[in-house]
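Q: Got a minute? One more chain.
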Amino acid sequence: MLCDVLKISRSSYYKNQKREKPQKEIQDETICNLIQEYHATYDGILGYRRMTMYINRLNQKEYSEGYIHRLMKLLGVSSRIRRKKINRKRTKPEYTKENILSRDFSTENPNEKWLTDVTEFSIPTDTRKLYLSPVMDLHGNDIVVYETSYRNDNRLVFKMFDKAIEKYPEAKPIFHSDRGFQYTGRVFKTKLEESEMTQSMSRVGKCIDNGPMEGFFGTLKSEMFYGKKFNSLEELEKAIHKYIDFYNNRRFQKKLGCMAPVEFRNQASNCI
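A: Always. Here it is, folded:
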């Protein structure tokens, strides 16, 4: 009856019943299942390049980006990431430092160059704002420490800095930031001098001088904030904690040899 309805011969039906799937078709189905699984697991943040890296790393394969991209297009799967620009306010500094880092983001070992900045979050259901102040190690772009607060003040940055010193008391890196009021005050200058760190500051209006830190903020907001709904700032704060843990320990980066930042740091530390 099915053959009559579909207007195909019975021989074609039986031939299809006995057909063995080619190895390529089986592989495509397997990879399509992985794409859908990882798209759901990582909340839609994986574009085809990062999807390729995750599939290859987690399954010990070497598929090309073009192949994964083609399958993602067939499935209608794409990254939900969107970018958003933030306008920053300028304040008159008590003192400034030269751009000693000078966009040289290369390092030989961990704890040679640290970057920092403050970024803000807001949601429609709350009049408050949430601020994040992290320290990034340029060796593997891992977030060494971070602090969150509902106030953008000196205390936020001081607590962040004290946590970094407690974690790595022997570290004496170049410490680079923009010219925000937290970093141009006399108290913070004293903290850096006591820790024997070299202070460096971006030039006015040159956010590219702190490019990797700005890049981290863009990645964080694209992957866990933009396009998401949060019922409270407390819920958002928990999501930030969870994301930074993911970023440090499970977010593979191609430039790190498909390792996560902390994994890359640990490997480098074992080689020293």
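A: Residues 94 and 220 are 31 Å apart (CA to CA).
Q: Perfect, thanks.
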